[in-house]
Amino acid sequence: MKELWTLDPEVNFLNHGSFGACPRAALEYQGELRARLERQPVQFFRDLEGLLDQARFKLAAFVGADGDDLAFVPNATSGVNTVIRSLQLQSGDELLTTDHAYNACRNALRWHEAIGVRAAAARVPWPLTGPHQVIDAILSAVNPRTRLLLLDHVTSPTGVIFPVGEIVRLMNERGIDTLIDGAHAPGMLPLDLNKLGAAYYTGNCHKWLCAPKGSAFLHVRRDKQAGVRPLAQGHGMNSNRTDRGPFRLQMDWIGTADPTAYLTVPFCIDYLNQQVPWPQLMQRNHDLAVEGRRILCKALGTPPPAPEFMLGSLAAALLPDSRAEAAPRDRAFWHPLTRTLLEEHRIEVPVFSFPAAPRQHVRISAQLYNCIDDYHQLASALQDQFRT
């Protein structure tokens, strides 16, 4: 299905997990929306409220939520920041996450440092033998000062599915709210946010749903919505409308922006389902990621760092330790081996120094445009690198 995407045919693209990739048909649909926007901008924004409602309720049905409990945001990082900055905290309170968390979201926890709020990280082992290690690490880090747990659904650096259902239940029993960073989950894993019961959940649509860049959502449990404020206040804060609640009025309209990425989400849900029905698509991508990891582990002679059942459409394979003490940080997303694989082998794939140099691993993705030969090519390139 490579021809359905606009990806460079000369590059073996194994990094869908970083920013996704949008199918050609979805980009064309977004282009039609943009043309409509520019043909009559004022009328488009008059119609926007209804268009957003339709898009939200379509997305809500896909993720197992009520459309009134969702708000579109540009990305999951914005969703995390929206929640963190809305919290009413006091000096001595603590916000907890894990050392597998996405760096930008760990930074978001530091917003309240000026008033004496502490950001802490539970140390989850890597490699992992099972979900119990995640649960044990988090429970051992919880204390009477813990006010909120920020937890990845699928970790970014290690590509592992965390047991969010069990952890949310345990936190709810302790009176601790949970914010789930589900950046990778929509389109990778079946979701039922109402059943999950987390206070907050944010997820990207531009990754595994393959929607345009700048489309994500924030789900806020009904009892928490009164305390959530957008990152920037717009007209909704002092609106006298009574047909919509404050959460809807404040989150849906902040100011002029291009909303077409949000409005393309329903198209992407239906379009991918037409190619391969969603349950089979998720299973296909999981199976391909698992097989790709097997190929890499065999070629490298390294053990799998996590059980197969903790994988979705991402998988990590351990690499020999790096020769340098630490990877240079002069370029974002640019581990030296990532650069070598792209420039010398035309393979786009991320390499992480994790938990710290010299330990490192490669993280592969699997999407409909990938096939098994892609991973054999990567395995051969890595063998070449570590022979020298």
Task: Characterise this structure.
- This protein has 388 residues and is an alpha/beta fold.
- It has two domains: 25-272, Type I PLP-dependent aspartate aminotransferase-like (Major domain) (Aspartate Aminotransferase, domain 2, 3-Layer(aba) Sandwich), CATH 3.40.640.10; 277-387, Aspartate Aminotransferase, domain 1 (Alpha-Beta Complex).
- It is built from 14 helices and twelve strands.
- It has helices at 16-19, 24-39, 41-63, 76-86, 103-108, 131-141, 164-173, 193-196, 246-252, 260-263, 265-275, 278-300, 336-345, 372-387; strands at residues 12-13, 70-73, 94-98, 118-122, 146-152, 177-182, 200-204, 216-220, 314-319, 347-348, 351-352, 360-365.
- It has a seven-stranded mixed sheet, with helices on both faces.
- α7 links the parallel β5 (146-152) and β6.
- The two termini are 35 Å apart.
- The model has no long low-confidence stretch (mean pLDDT 96).
Throw out a few tags for this protein.
388 residues, alpha/beta, Aspartate Aminotransferase, domain 2, Aspartate Aminotransferase, domain 1, 2 domains, 7-stranded mixed beta sheet, 3-stranded antiparallel beta sheet, 14 helices, 12 strands, globular
